[in-house]
Specification:
alpha/beta, 11 helices, 320 residues, elongated, 8 strands, Rossmann fold, single chain, eight-stranded mixed beta sheet
């Protein structure tokens, strides 16, 4: 018997249209929309991180435990005098003098994160000089919300100098600062260049270089462009522009014989090349390099040898 093949109804497929193809795959416009959203998300995240990181850059360092903003400590062996700056801040200045008539006067200016240095103050008094040391804004017992890397703190330097002249008129005056305090002395050059002498420890040449040194010590150099956002936000919030804060530019206003620049040989925060550049900016200025020491308190880590050098230098300026 002859059998006929069973007829099947083939599946009818309609040709795929252009519209169906674009429905299954994202169109160029859709892809661009997604990319734009991703870029906006990245930009928003970077902007938010920039704001948060700028706050870290501008935040004052932590105060010692138990110290409240603007409140005096329970006991101090030094007299406290509050002076008012032009911007309205009242800054404490700590002072003392030997029992006999002081033979000169020394102004002390601390580093970022520090406060009036009682050890150095007593050292100066023991040398026979009157001493004054402020707490910079947002440091120690001083009020304030912003630390200015020495640039804003030039106001405290001027106020302390004015107080010294009122309290001990006629005395020869020298200044001694370290890190941010040294920069503040330089920024107040209009007044401090007339002093008998200035001791500048671990002085950064420019804020841009100081920031770059600290970043590249911790992170690869190729990541540095990522800091542009936080730095820009910090500049806009504070009014302090990174490339304009350059203590080195103030050095030529001083007399070379009245400047001692001290540098730790192992300091990575202030590179040795910066120390050499500072000396080159004021030919004839005296430099002192401390082997094995970094960015630290030379008064203690330098030992009695360093303290004797400072004692002798102050005597040359103030007892002549």
């Amino acid at each position: 018997m002859e059998t006929k093949p069973r007829e099947t109804n083939p599946i009818q497929t309609e040709p795929q249209t252009e519209g169906d193809h674009t429905a299954s795959q994202p169109s160029a416009r859709s892809r661009w929309r997604r990319l734009r959203r991703a870029l906006l998300l990245v930009a928003f995240t970077y902007a938010l991180l920039s704001v948060l990181m700028s706050s870290q850059l501008l935040a004052p360092p932590p105060r010692p435990p138990g110290v409240r903003d603007g409140s005096p400590p329970p006991v101090s062996r030094f007299e406290r005098v509050d002076v008012e700056l032009k911007e309205g801040l009242r800054i404490p200045v700590w002072l003392s003098a030997p029992r006999e008539q002081p033979q000169g006067c020394v102004l002390l200016f601390h580093s970022r994160g520090g406060s009036h240095p009682e050890g150095r103050m007593q050292f100066v008094v023991d040398c026979g000089y009157a001493v004054l040391a402020p707490d910079f804004r947002a440091h120690g017992e001083a009020p304030g919300e912003l630390s200015g890397f020495g640039y804003l703190e030039q106001a405290e330097v001027r106020a302390t100098l004015e107080l010294a002249k009122k309290r001990w008129p006629g005395l020869r005056i020298a200044a001694w600062g370290w890190s941010m305090g040294a920069a503040a002395i330089l920024f107040a050059a209009e007044e401090t260049a007339e002093l008998e002498g200035v001791i500048l420890e671990s002085t950064y040449s420019s804020l841009d270089r100081a920031f770059r040194n600290r970043f590249q010590h911790r992170f690869p150099a190729w990541l540095y462009p990522l800091t542009y956002g936080p730095v820009l936000v910090a500049e806009m919030r504070s009014g302090l522009w990174l490339d304009e804060i350059q203590p080195i530019l103030e050095l030529p206003r001083f007399q070379a014989g009245r400047v001692l620049l001290v540098q730790g040989a192992a300091d990575w925060r202030v590179a040795m090349s910066e120390h050499k550049a500072m000396l080159a900016a004021l030919p004839g200025a005296k430099g002192l390099i401390l082997d094995g020491l970094g960015h630290e308190d030379f008064f203690w880590s330098g030992g009695e040898i360093y303290r004797k050098k400072i004692r002798d230098q102050l005597a040359r300026w103030l007892l002549r």
